[in-house]
From TrEMBL, chain A:
Keywords: Hydrolase. InterPro entries: DDAH-like. This is N(G),N(G)-dimethylarginine dimethylaminohydrolase 1 isoform X1. It comes from Python bivittatus (Burmese python). The gene is DDAH1. GO terms for biological process: arginine metabolic process; citrulline metabolic process; positive regulation of nitric oxide biosynthetic process. PANTHER family: DIMETHYLARGININE DIMETHYLAMINOHYDROLASE, N(G),N(G)-DIMETHYLARGININE DIMETHYLAMINOHYDROLASE 1. GO terms for cellular component: mitochondrion. The active site is at residues 174, 275.
UniProtKB/TrEMBL annotation, chain B:
Residues 49-58, 792-802 have a biased composition (Polar residues). This is Band 4.1-like protein 2 isoform X1. It comes from Python bivittatus. The gene is EPB41L2. Residues 93-102 have a biased composition (Acidic residues). It is found in: Cytoplasm, Cytoskeleton. Pfam families: 4_1_CTD, FA, FERM_C, FERM_M, FERM_N, SAB.
């Protein structure tokens, strides 16, 4: 095994993914920041299936698909309920009370992967996985409406090897609503003022200097990077039909295998690409 | 003596010293040493460091304490470092072994005798007196010569150098003797025994002269350890409060530990960011030992997995390959891998140990270190503190800068390049931050340490870390200045760059050393002070005036060096690329400021990028500098000081503290400030507030018509500037007064005083300003009246309404007069431009949160506006007053870091335009909402400025009851009336 995630070379390594089917209740009851258009459930399902299909078939990950739960309209966004880094999984305490039950199914799933599981029991703490950006070298935790200082603190206690810096997130749902990792050392970042401000904060907080990939659309800055042995750098990003200008930016990444994925429906309930999966690297050695 | 000779002397001395050391006869150390010490340090900071090191780095370091005072004195005067360096490098390698032996050989019988005595006595930690005059001479002079020879033999390959050395030595000997004769006094030699707990938990004790400097002991320990790459290490002692202090090698031990037991621990002081660059395995081994301590004690937190991995490397290094027969289940329990070691962890460690088969101990150590260095807290020296809101935080000093933690979360970070100045006053610790794009001013952030000593310790650690990691060579301690306060402490050891160079020259076969079991470490953790947690550096620099009192303030300006000492090599080393030394300096204080403009986080950039960036920055810098008063100090002084004083009729003085700016003028004004500070508020007296008044009324006759123009222009400018928010304040804030608001002067004063009280809590300096400000008010008015200045602060339209007559006249005159005026007053133009630009605002700084100090740097404002105002200035007399309110706000986003939001609101009424710029930032856990209001009031001569000001302040307060006024800058522009013309 390699300690400390083995550095940037191993960043993005992934063997397993956890996803969850979307319940029909999502259309009506899922939390959203602003009333937008109606979610087309059929289309949302199709898009999600495509997403899962890419992980499973195209990338060859072992995908654990949790069943949907009509009582948990937001449960498709599995990212928020757990933070996995190396062999340790921190089950979160989501900021939205209605989502706290989502954790249970995830716990069961992770048990089967024999990860070290840490639960966030502190009632003062809230943390959404969507606010956690792991760069391979350190964590940034967005302090948003969903995530508080105590939650970040518990995350820091859980992943002691890494620096955990807090980033204020004012006008977005999550930190990763406008950014994500697009490569081992590459932060994809939206162009909005909020996003740029957050990026500045992260740059100041870090001893390391990251490259940045600025895309015109905040939503498009949320992409999924994977590093699959034999396949190299893989990037799931929003489709050109949705964000043509941002897609052009991604297309400049020559080293990446680019996989455009539409996410039009879940976006209406503030869902982004990273939200829909939990990526885990179970190294065979341990 | 000439410099050269001096340097040689040093070398020689050191050699001599070695011999002496060998004898262990401390007979030489004279009492006078003490007295001379100050000179040494002051006079030749650089040389001292080098010299002490060079000779001593070879075997004979311990000896230096035996150096007779006069010898040391000579040292201090040695200026020729470069020479020494070359010699130095050679010495360490070849001379070590020989030196010691030599020393012993040379010892005279007498010495030996005395030695024997001394030893007996010293064991009991008693002090023995030896009258060593004669012996000394004998020992010294003879050994010196012999040493030369020996040395030369030892360093066969370096013949050339040696020759040089010899010659010099001889010269020196003579001198030395002479001095000796002159200075002889009966000396008492007191010998003490010190105990040093080494990293493997073993206690090492040695005897040496009581007056020895820290270096002597340190060198002894390093010799004992056979360690050459020493600069990463240091000795620590615990004070009465159990705080850990670094032993200053340049200062006498006795003075540092006072009455504490002579008990030290040997520790890593500077954690190498890239340990693989260390030359010797033995160095890495000691680093390993330190890290194991750090980890086992919990100082260096790591996850379960990492504990297991690191533990397994420890086993591999110390036990070799896993052997199922030898290593039964119990073998591991004697090791401590983690603060809370579980069975599960031990099992994991064993499991991993099995996988390391074949790794040599050195390889295992390397693996250990490579993993440990990635831990986020590697090399971070933590200090407890509180932020301005009294929230507990931790300040972490590391190679890259200063980290701020709240609980376990990093909430802010200030890389060294971002820090312009580090200072402490009492128990407060301040860093001055380079302005960001969103701020025009350098901001100062304060932290509250538990006590004065803690603040000073932190300050010193910062100074040392910055110097070690960022500079090419240590900075010289500030020279004694008139009115200097505070600590002159500087890091005197080698920097990382230097030590790397030196270790490149290490050319010895890898020394054999035994890896002692870590078991011992864990044992010693229980009892002995091995694991020293808070490593704070308490080095007291001798003869620093300020240090006597608790009030002592230390400041440290961060300066990036150009690699002056290390020639070509520097360029290659990323850390060294900081840039140039800017002489922006702070008045009268010994402050160590680094201007690393050029080094903004560029470490990871390529050379080209760096250069480009540097170029652009230096361009900016140049512009900035050019526009600052520096180039024309005289004019400034005249304007600011003389006229004002006159106006004030002796009542009020203008303080110009261009802390960050000017040089020449600064001196005068700053001194003033200092005085004031001492008188009024000796407690705090920081001087970074700039109070300037540049009203040149009376001096400059104005043409009425043109002034209007000016105003228009300036308004325009200001508006545009304000939108950018990057422009300098004063410009934007061409103040216009609202005639409507009538408030009595008293009110103003009251308001001001209120502010004062608020401020007084923590920043005296600001308070001062206030006082002055209030004083100013009346004088200004009077002055205005006398001179009958029309306040043109106003837009023409409005003005005209109110004083139609005047306006008209002016306008009429305008056209006709313009040309004349311009021609007539060429002088004025020049001066006038200054006025506008520098508009040196009167700054009232008050910061409510005790710790946050807002500095008003007037300088910046002057810079870019020059062009704009230049034209118009000549015509109009301008008084500038800008009102700015800054105050930290305690808002919900306490945890956040950095800039939260910024917005600009502009509202206009008939007679006033208010621009409100709101910036929310969080720094170091301190959330700060800064509201800058620019109120442009247009009015006529009759306008009561003070009232307007008071009103503005009042309104601001009413609007933001929860905030405090941090700064008030009044920018008045007044025009002379036609009568004057």
């Amino acid at each position: 095994m390699a300690g400390l995630s083995g550095g940037p070379l191993r960043f993005g390594r992934c063997s397993h993914a956890v996803v969850r089917a979307l319940p029909e209740s999502l259309c009506q009851q899922a939390l959203r920041r602003e009333k937008a258009k109606e979610v087309d459930f059929a289309r949302a399902e199709r898009e999600h299936q495509l997403y899962v299909g890419v992980l499973k078939n195209k990338l060859g990950l072992q995908v654990l698909e949790l069943p949907g739960d009509e009582s948990l309209p937001d449960s498709v966004f599995v990212e928020d309920v757990v933070v996995v880094c190396e062999e340790t999984a921190l089950l979160t305490r989501p900021g939205a009370p209605s989502r706290r039950k989502e954790v249970e199914a995830m716990k069961t799933a992770l048990d089967s992967l024999s990860l070290n599981i840490v639960e966030m029991t502190d009632e003062q703490a809230t943390l959404d996985g969507g606010d956690v950006l792991f760069t391979g070298r350190e964590f940034f935790v967005g302090l948003s409406k969903r995530t508080n200082h105590r939650g970040a603190e518990i995350l820091a206690d859980t992943f002691k090897d890494y620096a955990v810096s807090t980033v204020p997130v004012a006008d977005s749902l999550h930190l990763k609503s406008f950014c994500s990792m697009a490569g081992p050392n590459l932060i994809a970042i939206g162009s909005s003022e909020v996003a740029q401000k957050a990026l500045k904060t992260m740059q100041q907080m870090s001893d390391h200097r990251y490259d940045k990939l600025t895309v015109p659309d905040d939503a498009a800055a949320n992409c999924v990077y994977l590093n699959i042995p034999g396949k190299g750098h893989i990037l799931l990003h929003r489709a050109p039909e949705e964000y043509p200008e941002s897609a052009k930016v991604f297309e400049k990444l020559k080293d990446h295998m680019l996989i455009p994925i539409a996410n039009t429906e879940l976006e209406k309930v503030d869902g982004a690409l990273t939200c829909c999966s939990v990526l885990i690297n179970k190294s065979s050695q341990l | 003596m000439t410099t050269e000779v001096g340097s040689d002397t040093e070398v020689k001395e050191s050699e001599k010293l070695r011999t002496n050391t060998g004898s262990e006869n401390a007979g030489d150390a004279p009492e006078s040493q003490k007295e001379q010490k100050p000179e040494i340090e002051e006079g030749s900071p650089l040389p001292t460091a080098a010299t002490q090191r060079s000779p001593s780095s070879s075997g004979g370091k311990g000896i230096s304490r035996f150096i007779p005072p006069w010898l040391k004195k000579q040292k201090s005067y040695t200026l020729s470092e470069p020479k020494d360096e070359t010699q130095k490098r050679e010495l360490p390698v070849s001379e070590e072994e020989t030196v010691v032996e030599e020393g012993e050989c040379h010892l005279s019988e007498e010495t030996a005798r005395s030695k024997g005595k001394l030893e007996d006595i010293s064991e009991n930690l008693q002090e023995a007196e030896v009258v060593g005059r004669e012996e000394k001479r004998y020992v010294e002079s003879q050994p010196a010569e012999e040493d030369k020879e020996i040395v030369s033999e030892a360093t066969e390959n370096k013949q050339d150098t040696e020759d040089g050395k010899r010659e010099t030595k001889e010269v020196q000997t003579n001198e030395v003797k002479v001095e000796r004769v002159l200075q002889k006094t009966p000396k008492k030699i007191r010998i003490v025994q010190a105990k040093v707990v080494l990293l493997d938990g073993i206690e090492y004790s040695c005897d040496f002269e009581k007056k020895a400097k820290g270096q002597v002991l340190f060198d002894k320990v390093c010799e004992h350890l056979n360690l050459l790459e020493r600069d990463y290490f240091g000795l620590v002692f615990q004070d009465h409060t159990d705080q850990k202090n670094w032993l200053d090698s340049s200062k006498e031990i006795k003075k540092q530990i006072h009455n504490l037991p002579w008990l030290f621990t040997f520790n890593v002081k500077f954690y190498p960011p890239d340990p693989s660059q260390l030359t010797e395995d033995i160095t890495r081994y000691f680093l390993c030992l330190q890290l194991r301590q750090d980890i086992a004690s919990g100082r260096l937190p790591c996850s379960f997995v990492t504990h297991a991995l690191l533990g397994s490397y420890t086993l591999q290094a110390e036990l070799g390959d896993y052997d199922p027969e030898e290593h039964d289940s119990g073998y591991i329990r004697e090791f401590q891998f983690a603060p809370n070691q579980t069975k599960e962890l031990e099992e994991k460690v064993v499991e991993l140990h099995k996988t390391h088969r074949g790794l040599t101990p050195a390889q295992a150590d390397s693996q250990f270190i490579e993993n440990a260095k990635r831990l986020s807290m590697y090399g971070v020296d933590l200090h407890h503190a509180k932020d301005s809101e009294g929230v507990d935080i931790m300040l972490g000093v590391c190679a890259n800068g200063l980290l701020i933690y709240k609980d376990r979360l990093r909430i802010n970070r200030f890389a060294w390049p971002k820090i312009l100045k580090i200072s402490y006053k009492r128990s407060n610790f301040y860093i001055k931050i380079r302005p960001t794009e969103l701020e025009q001013f350098e901001s100062t952030i304060g932290f509250k340490l538990p006590n004065h000593r803690a603040a000073k310790r932190l300050w010193k650690v910062c100074v040392e870390h910055h110097t070690f990691y960022r500079l090419v060579s240590p900075e010289q301690p500030p020279k004694a200045k008139f009115l200097t306060l505070g600590s002159k402490f500087r890091y005197s050891g080698r920097t990382q760059a230097q030590t790397r160079q030196a270790s490149n020259l290490i050319d010895r076969p890898a020394p054999y050393f035994e890896r002692t079991s870590s078991k011992r470490i864990s044992r010693s953790l229980d009892g002995a002070p091995v694991g020293i947690v808070d490593q704070s550096l308490l080095k007291d620099f001798p003869v620093v005036a300020g240090e006597r009192t608790l009030e002592a303030a230390g400041q440290y300006k961060l300066k990036d060096e150009e690699g002056r000492d290390l020639d070509g090599d520097i360029a290659k080393m990323p850390q060294l690329e900081d840039g140039k030394i800017y002489s922006l300096r702070v008045n009268g204080e010994n402050i160590y400021v680094r201007h690393s403009n050029l080094m903004l986080e560029e470490l990871d950039k390529t050379q080209d990028e760096l250069l480009k960036h540097q170029a652009s920055i230096s361009e900016l810098k140049r512009n900035f500098m050019e526009s600052t008063p520096e180039p024309r100090p005289n004019e400034w002084e005249k304007r600011r000081i003389t006229p004002l004083t006159l106006q004030a009729q002796g009542k009020f003085t203008f303080q110009t503290e261009e802390s960050s700016i000017g040089t020449s003028r600064t001196i005068k004004s700053s001194h003033e400030t200092l005085d004031i500070v001492e008188k009024k508020q000796a407690e705090v007296g920081i001087a970074e507030t700039v109070v300037t008044d540049d009203t040149n009324r009376g001096k400059i006759p104005f043409g009425g018509g043109e002034s209007q123009k000016m105003e228009h222009l300036s308004k325009k400018d200001s508006s545009s500037l304000s939108s950018n928010s990057s422009s300098s304040e004063s410009e934007d804030e061409v103040g216009e007064y609202q005639p409507h608001q009538q408030i009595m002067q008293d009110t103003i004063k009251e308001e001001l005083e209120e502010n004062e009280t608020i401020k007084e809590e923590k920043h005296n300096s600001s308070a001062e300003v206030y006082v002055k400000f209030s004083e100013e008010v009346s004088p200004i008015q009077t002055a205005i009246e006398h001179k009958e200045l029309t306040e043109t602060l106003i837009q023409t339209n409005e003005a005209s309404t109110k004083t139609p007559e005047k306006r008209k006249l002016r306008q009429l005159d305008d056209e006709g007069l313009k040309e004349e005026k311009e021609e007539d007053q060429p002088k004025l133009n020049g001066e006038a431009s200054h006025i506008d630009l520098e508009i040196s605002p009167q700054l009232i700084c008050c910061s409510e949160p005790p710790l946050i100090k807002t500095e008003m740097v007037t300088i910046s404002e002057a810079s870019q506006r020059t062009e704009i105002s230049t034209k118009e200035v000549p015509i109009v007399q301008t008084e500038t007053k800008t009102i700015t309110y800054e105050s930290p706000q305690f808002d919900d986003a306490g945890d956040a870091g950095m800039l939260l939001s910024a917005q600009t609101i502009t509202s206009e009424s008939v007679s006033a335009t208010t621009t409100t710029h709101i910036t929310k930032t969080v720094k170091g856990g301190v959330s700060e909402t800064r509201i800058e209001k620019r109120i442009v009031i247009t009015g006529d001569a009759d306008l009561d400025h003070d009232q307007a000001l008071a009103q503005a302040i009042k309104e601001a307060k009413e609007q933001h009851p929860d905030m405090s006024v941090t700064r008030v800058v009044v920018h008045k522009e007044s025009e002379l009336e036609e009568e004057d013309l």
